[in-house]
Structures are given as C-alpha cells and as structure tokens.
Amino acid sequence: MSRALTVKSVFKVPALKIASRHLSTCATYFPGEPGAPVIKTSSVPGPISQQLNDKLGHVFDNRATYFLTDYYNSIGNYISDADGNLMLDVYAQISSIPLGYNNPELIKTAKSDEMTNALINRPALACFPSTDYSKILSEGILAAAPKGMSRVWTALAGSDANETAYKAAFMYQHTKRRGASDFSAEELESVMDNKVPGASDMVILSFDKSFHGRLFGSLSTTRSKAIHKLDIPAFNWPKAPFPSLKYPLDQFEAENRQEEDKCLSEFETIIKNYNGKVAAIIVEPVQSEGGDNHATPYFFQQLRNITKENDVLMIVDEVQTGVGASGKFWAHEHFDLPSPPDMVTFSKKFQAAGFYFSSADLQPKQPYRQFNTWCGDPSKALIARTIYTEVAKHGLVESTSRVGDYLYGKLEALSEKYPIGNLRGQNFGTFIAWDCKDADQRAHLLGALRNKGINIGGCGDYSIRLRPPLVFEQKHADILVGALEAVYAEL
C-alpha cells in the first residue's frame, strides 16, 4: 500500500462503497491509507511531540496528553503524531471519530455554503433558528432516530445532553404532579431560594460504575472514578448496583442470571423506597468509562418493565455507545426492550449532541425553560447529517458488525495463549474490551502497543477497550491482532 498521504492529497481521496462488498485485505473505504503503521522514532511520543507538549503545558493543562497530533497528516484509520509516526487508531478520540481522519465527504461539508452560513452567523437556536434547521435535522439527526423517537433537543456536548434530559424529566414529573394548576405563589417564591416546593425534591437514579459527564448534574450521576468527583458539591441522588458478569457468558448463564436478578431486586427496592421521587433513571448500554461493563438483554428488559410499573422515566445514555460501533446504530437495539426508552442521549461519534424523545409532554409547555443561548450548533448538525448519510450509503453499521465478529474470534483465540482476561463484546460490533492483571500491566501494554503503531486506550481500573472508527476493516483487525500478539509475547 502507499505511504502516508500529503496534506494536499488527503483532500482528494475518493470514498468507495463497501456496503455489499466482501471485506478484503485492502482498505476499501480509504484506499490511500498506509498499508501498516509507520513508526519513525524509538518510542511514542517522539522528541518533537514531547517538545511541543512541553511548550503547550505553559498555557494549557496537558497532563492527560498522549502525544501531539498532526491532524493534517492523519488519514482514515491512521493518526499521525508530530514526529510523523502513523498509528492505527483504535481509540478514535475516545470513540468520537466515525468516518476516519480527513474524510473526503466531511471535507466537502466543511467547505459548503451551508457550513459557512452556520459558522459565521451562528444562531441562538431557541430564539432565531435558521430557515433550514428543520431540514438539516430531518435529513440527519432525526433520520437516525431510535425506534419510537420522533423529536430531538440539540445540545453542546454529552454532559449537556444528559443534563437537559434530566431537566426534561424533572419538569415532566412535576407537571404531572401539578395537574392543570399553574405555578403557585409559594413555588415561585421558594425556588428563588433553592427550596421546595419550587425547587424539586425528586432525584435521578444512576448505576454504580456509570459515567454520564462532568457537569454538576451529570457528575452527580457519574460513579466510575473518585477523581472525577472529588471536591465538587453533589446532589444526594441514589445509585443502584450494575451486574458484574462472569465470562465466557455461555459458561456462567445461571450465575449471571442470579447476579442480574439480585441487582434488579435492589434497583426496584430503591425505586419504591423513594416513594415516587425518582423522576428518571439513566443507564448506559455498556458502562464505557467504568470498565466496559455489560449486562444481558434480560437485565435491560426488566429495567424497562420496572420503570414503567413505577412511572419512572428511562433515559438511555448512548453518548459513547451510539452511531454504529456496537453493530447496531443504537446499542440498546440489541436488547429488544418491551417498549422504547423515554429519552436517548447522544454525542461523540455523531459530532453533535442532544437527546431524542417521543412524548410531546417531555417538551415543557412554557418557553425559556429548556433553554440556553446556543441550544446546540447547526454546524455540528450538518456534520452529523453527512455522517449519517455516509454510514447508510456504505453500510458501515453492517460492516462494523461483520468486522467485530471477525476481530472477536481472533481475540478469543489469542486469549487461549495470553492473559487476555474477561474478553467481552461478542456480537457487539467492535465494542470489545478485556481485562489486564492490574493497572501497571495495562499501562505497560498501552505504551508498548503505541510503540508498535497502535493507538489504544483503557477504561475502568485495568481494562483495555477498542473504539475504532466505523471504517475499520478486516485488514486493520489483522494488524491490531498481530501487534497484540507481539506485545503479549514480550510480557
């Protein structure tokens, strides 16, 4: 295959259709990609990247930086650092790049008159939406809506998407309590002092090891790591246990069902003990930041039944799981829920953010209640439209499902030789993870893989997760597995 493309040539790479094509050893969507990682320095990050990062550190908190990235030289599934190292990227900006780097169709969108208009005349959407905003949403974000969802509220980021969904839940539940009555004088007065009855006494329930964002409300529902929450005031909201499954799943069906029933029982007890004050629950199809923790469809089906029986709204947080990575466009589609969730939040791979909903009652009756200056961003909605169009046109969800099955099989075989613990994500696209012995072993493996040309990330206390773009193909899976085998062999 050809070497890394220059900046100018990147903008001319054509996209090729792969929807019904057998996956070959050649990259089909990005034919101009390098055939393999290119590592020029003795280690990653290299000296130029380290020097630039030191300079950046004087003006910006860069303590979480992996390496300084040359996005002009990145292409498709390959990310380039400042030293010219080209690494196969299976982390993809923490699961946020759906179509690879310098995607030609996204470049066209970026250069369009629509994008220019959206960027330089950025509207305060709640007050001055553009004449074409309905069309942009209908052709993109709403065209991709989960089953049962016909409306959307756009937001600025995943945390914002979740927090606006929480607001919708609280306003919905209090409107039901109030009935036909208007706000009382006591409510209007007490809320200005942050007191009931004007302020809510209701809660949002989340799950142990969950991650829903880092703003004040979303942080109160985040339970993955203490470092996220230390020193920050929090709402006293409840958490329920999330199942800890044993793997392989087919060998522990009875034990896992017992674990899930135990968690469900405790969940229902918490709901009932709050005596009608749980406005909504929020749950991830896979607890991504908390360690890629899975549960079975049975668990999610029962959650839905319990929320319905107790008049509690169900918010499914698809910020990290959504837009195809699981082999379904929305990961909760794997669960065959008895009825759709009440809200589904999104961000990351859609490059836009917000929440879907079906009931018009989740939209407050008065203006300015669900409100901020921007209420999303039309430029991001344009990008989301192109992402959806490309995903549908090239069958990228189906491709991700096939490649995920292939990759899982390869990793399963590898786990028979090396300490790849609790391999999970079977039949779940490329949303695959496994456990290391401890955090030190994981840090060693991640560093060694980068030095071999694989950019990869972790989650939880000692897990490694895969988050490649939707244009990740069988060829890339083989490169990844080869690098993993070499690194584990060196342990």
UniProtKB/TrEMBL annotation:
Q: Which reaction does it catalyse?
A: 4-aminobutanoate + 2-oxoglutarate = succinate semialdehyde + L-glutamate
Q: Does the keyword Transferase apply?
A: yes
Keywords of the record: Aminotransferase, Pyridoxal phosphate, Transferase
Enzyme class, first EC level, given as a word: transferase
GO CC, sorted alphabetically, is: mitochondrion
Superkingdom as given in the UniProt entry: Eukaryota
Q: Does the keyword Transferase apply?
A: yes
Q: Which residues form the signal peptide?
A: none
GO function terms (MF aspect): 4-aminobutyrate:2-oxoglutarate transaminase activity; pyridoxal phosphate binding
Q: Which cofactor does it need?
A: pyridoxal 5'-phosphate
Q: According to the UniProt entry, what is the EC number of this protein?
A: 2.6.1.19
> What's any GO biological process attached to this entry?
gamma-aminobutyric acid catabolic process
Q: Which InterPro entries does this UniProt record tie to the protein?
A: 4NH2But_aminotransferase_euk, Aminotrans_3, Aminotrans_3_PPA_site, PyrdxlP-dep_Trfase, PyrdxlP-dep_Trfase_major, PyrdxlP-dep_Trfase_small
Subunit relationships: Homodimer and homotetramer.
Q: Which family does it belong to?
A: Belongs to the class-III pyridoxal-phosphate-dependent aminotransferase family.
Q: Which PANTHER family match?
A: 4-AMINOBUTYRATE AMINOTRANSFERASE, MITOCHONDRIAL, AMINOTRANSFERASE
Protein name, entry field? 4-aminobutyrate aminotransferase
Q: Which organism is it from?
A: Candida tenuis (strain ATCC 10573 / BCRC 21748 / CBS 615 / JCM 9827 / NBRC 10315 / NRRL Y-1498 / VKM Y-70) (Yeast)
